């Protein structure tokens, strides 16, 4: 898995030893409202969650500041079909409002759509997750679908919005 770098960020593979840094993110009840599982109760639970077997086919890049190897969150991608990936992300609340999520997601989109030449990336988000919807739409993603009662989560059965981005749309958006 390639390490992705910018002037201020380094995205590298998530490791189980990121558990202590990511536990505050994954134990934040408000932040975890829109996640597929409930808030974590211990660092050990987070460590288990980050194990490669738990991650499965997802490629997860830890978001770190250049010069600091402390995970602030991650951007993950899962190859769903040939040349099509699903993307997901989470970021520690103290890092919000600094453009970090936008920059990290853009780095992964460049990897998937430009470097790897995939044709499409999509994201699945809760209709009430206004922060995620705002990020996706500001990056050129288009709302493609509304799935009713799609997910059974720790807060109940939830609907889902699907947002998609094509390679040509991303290239145009970058300019």
From TrEMBL:
A Pfam family found in this protein is Acetyltransf_3
Q: In this protein, which residues make up the domain named N-acetyltransferase?
A: 9-162
Annotated membrane-spanning segments are none
Q: Which InterPro entries match?
A: Acyl_CoA_acyltransferase (IPR016181), GNAT_dom (IPR000182), N-acetyltransferase (IPR051531)
- Gene3D superfamilies in UniProt: 3.40.630.30
Q: PANTHER family, per this entry?
A: GNAT FAMILY, PUTATIVE (AFU_ORTHOLOGUE AFUA_3G00765)-RELATED-RELATED
In Swiss-Prot or TrEMBL terms, this protein is called: GNAT family N-acetyltransferase
């Amino acid at each position: 898995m390639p390490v992705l770098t910018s002037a201020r960020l380094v995205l590298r593979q998530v490791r189980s030893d990121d558990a202590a840094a990511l536990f505050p993110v994954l134990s934040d009840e408000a932040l975890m409202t829109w996640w597929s599982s409930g808030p974590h109760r211990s660092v050990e639970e987070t460590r288990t969650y980050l194990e490669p077997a738990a991650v499965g086919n997802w490629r997860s890049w830890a978001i770190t500041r250049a010069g600091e190897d402390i995970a602030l969150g991650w951007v993950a991608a899962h190859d769903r079909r040939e040349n099509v990936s699903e993307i997901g992300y989470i970021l520690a609340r103290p890092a919000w409002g600094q453009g970090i999520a936008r920059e990290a997601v853009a780095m992964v989109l460049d990897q998937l759509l430009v470097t790897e030449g995939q044709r499409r990336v999509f994201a699945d988000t809760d209709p009430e997750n206004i922060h995620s919807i705002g990020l996706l739409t500001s990056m050129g993603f288009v709302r493609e679908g509304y799935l009713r009662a799609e997910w059974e989560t720790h807060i109940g059965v939830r609907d889902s919005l699907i947002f998609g981005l094509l390679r040509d749309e991303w290239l145009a958006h970058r300019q």
